[in-house]
Every structure is written in structure tokens, then in C-alpha cells.
Amino acid sequence: MKKDSGYAWFIVVGCCMMNAIIMGFKRSGAILFLEAEHALHANKRETGFTMAIGNSLTLFMSPAANIFATLFGSRKIVFIGGLLYSCGLFASRFATDMLLLNVTYGLLGGIGSSLCYAPSVLMVGLYFERRRALANGLSVAGSGLGAFILAPLIDALIGEYGYYATWTVLAGISLHLCVCGVLYRPFEADADDRPAGDEIKMETQPVSNGESNGESLIVAKPSRLSLFRKVFNYRLLTKPTFLLFLLYNCVSCLSYASNYYIAARVIEQGHSETTAAILLSVSGASDLVGRLLSGVISDRKTVNRKLLFKVYFLTGGGALLVFPLLQSLWMQYCCVVVTAMSIGMNTTLLPVVLVDILGVKDFPTSFALTSLAHGIGMFVGPPVAGWLIDSTGRVDISLFFCGGSLLLSAALAFLEPCVRKLEIQCCTR
Fold first, then answer.
1. How far apart (Å, rounded) are the C-alpha atoms in residues 158 and 167?
2. H or E element that contains 90
3. How far is CA 142 from the centre of its chain?
4. What is the reported pLDDT for 204?
5. Fewer CB atoms < 10 Å away: N or C end of the chain?
6. What is the reported pTM?
């Protein structure tokens, strides 16, 4: 099976749809959680904790999801994950307090989304090589597309049917994740694409083309032990540059729930929830444009992708710091556009930069560990930002916290050349 062409683009369609449903909701669900505060009589810290569980579990379980996908196939795992995620959203309809919402949306929905997310990204990495940046850009563009569509849709559903019924509609939409799983046909590498040293089991299978003509196909199937070894390479944790990479990615994700606080800030200034929903929709559209542009630009050989990856932290963090200081709604729109485009472009480059730094062979391990680092940041950030709001009574404090975390991650990222130089010196001694 050839990479970068043919059926590979159906994998991109499946991954894009997955990102639209799962990540699109995580970026646009602020309106629903603001409504949950009123319906369930919760404060900002409790709401932040619920979002933190759902967001972080999606990435916390990425190592386990990758193992399951490698051993049993991405198609089965994503299908099961889609069912779990849909059940979690539907069960959230019956949650009468934030504790139950922690279980339904946070725990059940988080596990389901993890089983969908990690295998989907892994499939794109397997099916593409030369055009990996473009394919990844198109795949993760689904996040911005989903946010652009879901933000006004959720606002309309709440206005028409109410808070509880909105969960039911979202559960029905999320069943399309099962369709994504069906699209993930197992990748069968050509002989030239197989990594050296893999334990391969050769199986002969009849060709199924509507006729029996006696022809057969030789299919290479790595043993499960070999596959397990490929998923986790713990030696990466001994590399200082990769540990620094994990650190600044973890710090950056302290700001993951910034859209929730952007919406809360706009409402605090006297604007309606519909205005906040439009702002989040603009954020989703900007995120979409940023991801597509990043995929096209970073495929050029003259582009320094690692440098761009770090610069996007700076621009996104700077815009978030400025946002709470603005009173003009149009200026706030401009800040949201810059922030969303920066985060979208940065997210698109993540898998590509990992492959550039460590190679495609260690991509499953590096991506799983990076996702774990992201999950830690997502788990810590929203409750801390919510606590800051409850303690001070000011929403702008949370935005300063989110912007500051992005700027701190940029500062750590620019230390990478120094750490790499020290690492090389230690290895040559």
C-alpha cells in the first residue's frame, strides 16, 4: 500500500471528522458549561474541574489508546470510543449536579474521546510521509471547523430546547465517530516501507475481487510483541531535549480552557451569550484557517518548522494577555483571531515537529508521551484559573494566567538549543 495517495485521503477525512466532533466541542462548549453553572448551581472552580477531567483524560489515556489500537486495530478501538463518548454525553443530560457531570462527561466522555483521538492521529502518521504536514493540517482543521459550527449551534439549541436537551442532540451528533472508525482501514506496508529489525509474520491471503482466479496476496503482519515494542520506547525519557519539549508543552496547555474565560469575560462586560457564541465561532474559523495555512506553509523545505512552532506560543500568549485590557468588541475579535490562528498553527505542527526531532519510528511513543504532558496541563489549568476567578471575582485574572502560561512555554522552548548543546557535550565525553 502506497503512502501519500489513494485511500490515505479517506483517513484524513475520518480524522478531520473526529476532530470536528470531539475537539470542536472542547473549543466551543464554553456556552454550554456557562449554562451548566446556572442549571447545576456551580461556581467557576467546579466547572473548570469538570472541563479539566474531560479534556485531560482525552490525552492522559493516549498511551493506552495507542497500545490498544496497535494490538487490536484502530478501526475497532475508535468505533468503541465513539459509542462511549456518545453515551457519556447522553448520560450528562441526567446529571443533577457537577459531581455526576464529572462522571458522565468527564470520565465516560473523556475515556471515549481518548480512544478516538490518539488512534486517529496515529493513522494519519502511518499513511503519510512526504505530505505529512499537509495531511495533518487538513486533519486537525476539523477542530476549527467543529468550533465554528458548534458554537452557534449550541447557543441555538439552548435557546430553543434548553440546557438538558442540548446534551441529547450532541450525543446523537457524536455517534458519527463510529463512522470515522469504519474508515480506518489497517495500513499494510510495502516491503520498502517496513522498519528494519521488525519481527514479521508473512501470511498468504486470497485476493477478493469478485472472482476466484487462484491468485494470492502476501501480507506482512508484525507480531504483537514487535508492535508493543514499537509503541513505547522509554529511552526517549533519557533525552534532556525531549524532556524539555514535554515540559513546555505541558505548561502551554495550562491555557487550554481560555475560550471559556473569553466567553465569560465578554458576558461580564454586558454582552449577550449569543455575542459570546459568535466570538467563539470566529475563534473556530480562525483556528481552521490557521491549521490549513500551517499545513501548506510547513510542507516547504525552506521553512524552519521548529522555529515557527515556538513563535506561535509567543503570538498566542501575547494576544491573550492583551484581550482583557480591551473594551472594544471589535478589538477583542482581532485578539481572538490572532490567538486562535496561533494555537491552530502550533497544534498542526506538533506531530510534524515530533517526527522531525525523533523520526517516524519513535512517533507513537513521542506523541503518546506529549499527549500525556498536554493532559497534565489541561487537568491543572482550568481548576486553577477557576479558583483565581472565585477568589478575586475577576474573570480577567484567568486570561492573564492563560496568556502568561503560553509566554512561559515560549521562553522554555527557546532554551532548547542550549539544552541540545549540553546534551551533545555530555554524549561526546
1. 10
2. helix 74-92
3. 10
4. 43
5. C
6. 0.76
